[in-house]
């Protein structure tokens, strides 16, 4: 199972159709940009951006994965080219694979994202630059 460390309480159960797994909060790994990697399967991964502080947008970057997200708390701006989307609690968004974009955190921001394929595999989630 991806994300579980040695001695973890995360678990995997084999079924006749595949694996059912759980990732404990204590076993969640952190990424270089502040994201926390949650559960991941072969074709989709989930990550959490928890209480990210306000910040200027980083340079736009295109990723090889599709992203869908949901804002739990806070506010951010999603910029893609000449388009800006204002994101607040309860909003959700989609960024297709290959679209250059950036986020500006306006107010302490917590969001959950799913990426396909999983961002945390094969170095897909390295910081731009």
Automatic annotation (TrEMBL):
InterPro entries: Cupin_2, RmlC-like_jellyroll, RmlC_Cupin_sf
Entries under Gene3D superfamilies matching the protein: Jelly Rolls
Biased segments, Basic and acidic residues type: 16-25
All copies of domain Cupin type-2, residue ranges: 53-105
Region listing for Disordered, in residue ranges: 1-26
Superkingdom to which the source organism belongs: Bacteria
Coiled coil spans: none
A Pfam family recorded for this sequence: Cupin_2
Protein name according to UniProt: Cupin domain-containing protein
Lineage: Bacteria, Bacillati, Actinomycetota, Actinomycetes, Geodermatophilales
